[in-house]
Every structure is written in C-alpha cells, then in structure tokens.
C-alpha cells in the first residue's frame, strides 16, 4: 500500500499507538513502530486533517469536580432516529450518542453539573426534543475502564510497553477529588482542543514558560482529573461491530466482574452504575460471531452475573469532530 491509503496497516498501528500515548512524538513513534519519522508525521497529519482521529482530553468527573457522568437509555419516535443523535450531540455536556440497531433506541452519555435528579433526570430540561423519552438513567459509581484507556489490540506487547514508558504516571494511592482552578481549566481546555499541542506552544498561548506548562499538564494527569484520549472509529481499526452489554451482578461480585472485563482487549468501556443493571460495558469486535464468543465464553465464564442484555450499536456521534492543527508533542 502507498502513503495515500488511509486504511493500511501502518495507519492502524499509528492510531493504536496514539490511543496508548496521545502525546507520543513522531520520532518516538517511528522508533517503536519501525518506520521513518517523516512518514509517521505525514500519516498523523493526514489522519488528523481528515478527521479520522481526534486527539483530545476528557475530564474525569469522579475526580475533577466537573459534574457527574450519566448514561441515559432513550426511546425515540419512529422516523426520528436519524436526526436526534446529531441534535443531542450538540447539547452542552453530551459526550456521545449511540443508536441501537433494530429499534428506536439510543444511549446518551453526558456530564451533569450538580447532583443528578433520578429517575426524571434530563430531557425534560432540554428543549426541542419532544420525540425522545428517557427509559432509564445510570450514574457512574466506579469506572473500571474508560474510552481513554482503551486501544485497539494491533501492536506487539513490547511496542505497547515502550509507548507506556513515556506516559505521565498517576500518583500512588487512591485518587482524590481535585476541583480545577481557573488555570487548571485553561490548561485542560487547551488539551481538549488539541492533546498533541507542544509544551512550548501551550506555554506561549497561556502565558507560561515551557517548564511551567509541563508541570501543569503533569499535575492534571498525575491526579487523574484529566485523561488524554485519541478518538477513532473502531471500524477503522478492523473492529466494526460495537455492542453495549448491560449486566445484573450480585453486589459481592461487582468489583470482580468489572475488573475482569476491564482487562479484556474487546472491552472499550466498563463502569459500575446505578439502576437495575449494575455494570455497563462496551465491546468492539470483528463480527457478530466474535461478539457471540465474547458473550458466551468471556461473560458466561464470570461468576456472580445474574442477567445479561446485549445490544449492537450503530452510528456513534459526539461533539466537535473538527480536527485542529497538531504540532508534534515533545
């Protein structure tokens, strides 16, 4: 394949590497992946400029004091499924919207300021969506794996290890809530727009020295209030089938099941939540047969599970897909 083909194996390897380390420099990526850094730089620039990937940052609501992570199960009026996800994705606080295959259902993940009011949480407060009804609301109680922590399993173990070696490591011990200061918020917003911004450019834009910019970024990552993330369509990485799994788990087994699922390469998201289903998990696989094997072989082998509900997701949309300029991170 030539350098103009955006779906070849090198592109997939670069995306998977950036999922592990969104700020990895092109020289580092070239050494680890075994390609010339100029080739890697061209590929990354093209992936960003075409919107194939987006390097951003997410607040961790459990630690940042920015609100509460809530998953809504919605039902829409027939004929509205094509338009409501795009409209929902534009609302403040909405992180992503996913349609459920074979019905008029949606999942909406959003950040809610203040204390969520369950069960009548959100859409009664959002104008312009009379076609949607909230079926259930689930507040995140414990994240086992976030989308920012998942990467496509296309790299060798040694390559993954080398990419993680340059990551900012979290401080030891349990994470604590850390309310963002106005300066923290400015740094977080800059990284949300472009997680690959160089420290020199970040310092210049915010009026810091390069060293201060580096310390500010490291502090947010060490305290786990911010998570760097490379957003990519799993289909581009050879995983076109996405599914949401809802599990009823005995309370004694929630930690065991959630931890086990978080270690599975197929699981891109897993959290303990409120509601009649105690765990939500998203799965990315090659085809429906692989999904069946995962449900039967992996979930079926776990203890404490009382019930399992699986839905294949179709189009997933989120806010702001425009790709910013992306100078290489140091």
In short:
The chain is an alpha+beta fold and 330 residues long. The chain has eleven helices and ten strands. The chain has helices at 9-20, 26-33, 37-49, 61-64, 84-89, 157-165, 182-193, 199-206, 210-222, 254-262, 288-299; strands at residues 53-59, 68-76, 94-100, 105-112, 132-145, 226-232, 241-249, 267-273, 279-285, 305-317.
Task: Describe this structure as you would to a colleague.
With 330 residues, the protein is α+β, with helices and mostly antiparallel strands. Among the domains are: 61-140, Lrp/AsnC effector binding domain/regulation of amino acid metabolism (RAM) domain (Alpha-Beta Plaits, 2-Layer Sandwich); 144-152 and 233-316, Lrp/AsnC effector binding domain/regulation of amino acid metabolism (RAM) domain (Alpha-Beta Plaits), CATH 3.30.70. The chain has helices spanning 9-20, 26-33, 37-49, 61-64, 84-89, 157-165, 182-193, 199-206, 210-222, 254-262, 288-299; strands spanning 53-59, 68-76, 94-100, 105-112, 132-145, 226-232, 241-249, 267-273, 279-285, 305-317. An eight-stranded antiparallel β-barrel has the order 2-4-3-10-7-9-8-5. The protein has a two-stranded antiparallel sheet with strand order 1-6. α2 packs across α3 and α8 (199-206) packs across α9 (210-222). It is globular and about 50 Å long. Residues 1-6, 118-126 and 320-328 have low confidence and may be disordered.
């Amino acid at each position: 394949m030539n350098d103009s083909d955006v779906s070849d194996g090198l592109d997939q390897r670069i995306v998977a590497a950036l999922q592990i380390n969104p700020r990895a420099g092109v020289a580092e990526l070239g050494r680890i992946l075994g390609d010339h850094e100029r080739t890697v730089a061209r590929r990354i620039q093209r992936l960003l400029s075409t919107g194939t990937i987006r390097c951003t940052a997410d607040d961790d609501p459990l630690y940042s004091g920015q609100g509460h992570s809530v998953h809504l199960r919605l039902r829409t009026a027939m004929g509205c499924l094509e338009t409501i996800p795009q409209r929902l994705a534009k609302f403040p606080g909405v992180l992503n919207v996913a349609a459920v295959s074979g019905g008029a259902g949606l999942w909406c993940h959003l950040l809610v300021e203040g204390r969520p009011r369950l069960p009548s949480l959100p859409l009664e407060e959002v104008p312009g969506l009379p076609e949607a009804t909230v079926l259930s609301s689930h507040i995140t109680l414990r994240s086992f794996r976030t989308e920012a922590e998942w990467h496509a399993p296309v790299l060798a173990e040694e390559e993954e290890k080398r990419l993680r070696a340059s990551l900012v490591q979290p401080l030891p011990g349990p994470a604590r809530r850390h309310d963002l200061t106005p300066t923290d918020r400015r740094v977080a917003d800059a990284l949300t727009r472009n997680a690959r911004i160089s420290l020199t450019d970040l310092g210049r834009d915010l009026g810091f020295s390069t060293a201060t910019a580096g310390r500010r970024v490291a502090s947010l990552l060490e305290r786990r209030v911010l998570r760097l993330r490379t957003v990519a369509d799993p289909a581009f990485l050879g995983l076109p089938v996405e599914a949401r799994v809802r599990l009823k788990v005995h309370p004694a087994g929630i930690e065991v099941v959630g931890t086990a699922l978080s270690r599975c390469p197929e699981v891109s998201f897993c959290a303990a939540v409120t509601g009649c289903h105690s765990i939500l998990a998203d799965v990315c696989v090659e085809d429906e047969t692989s999904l069946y094997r995962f449900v039967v072989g992996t979930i079926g082998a776990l203890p404490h599970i009382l019930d399992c509900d699986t839905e294949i997701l179709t189009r997933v949309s989120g806010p702001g897909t425009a790709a910013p300029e992306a100078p290489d991170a140091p």
